[in-house]
Amino acid sequence: MNAASPIKTHCSEAEWQARLNLAACYRIFDLLGWSESIYNHITLKVPDDERAFLMYYMLQRACEVQVKTAALGHQITVAPDIISVHQRDRDQVAIAGVGEADLKAWIRKLDKIDPSWRD
């Protein structure tokens, strides 16, 4: 048996479960071959704190680079058609509870492949 994660001792049970779900999502996306581009931008709201999110460090770093680039006066322009497609897609999946059954099924699959991911 592995020692408890130091992070686990500093967060609530709800946050720990959210962290496990986020870890599972990254592994699921990798199993599906969605390891590049926008497919690895998974962010999760911390259940106990309305202001806190869990996110992948590289996504945070990419956002920091964009902010610093903008601060240098270089405009980052996204075409309106790209924005509208993103907003349309986001709105289609923004229904509470969508994907919960799928996530549970994928977590069961991960457990069969490698149960050590929960450590």
Condensed summary:
52% of the residues lie in helices and 5% in strands. It is mainly alpha-helical and 119 residues long.
What does this protein look like?
Helix 1 crosses helix 4. Helix content is 52%, strand content 5%. It has a two-stranded antiparallel sheet. It has 4 helices and 2 strands; from the N terminus they run αββααα. The chain has a domain of 76 residues. The longest helix is centred in the first third of the chain and has 19 residues. A hairpin with a 7-residue loop joins strand 1 and strand 2. It is mainly α and 119 residues long.
The rounded Rg comes to 17 Å
SS class? mainly alpha
Low-confidence stretches: none
- Amount of beta strand: 5-15%
Strand order of the largest sheet: 1-2
| Largest sheet geometry | 2 strands, antiparallel
What series of H and E elements makes up the topology?
HEEHHH
Give the CA-CA distance, first to last residue: 9 Å
Question: How is the topology of this model organized?
Answer:
Blueprint: H1 13-31, E1 43-45, E2 53-55, H2 57-71, H3 80-93, H4 100-113
Antiparallel strand pairs: 1-2
Helix pairs in contact: 1-4
Brief descriptors of the model:
119 residues, mainly alpha, two-stranded antiparallel ribbon, 52% helix, 5% strand, globular
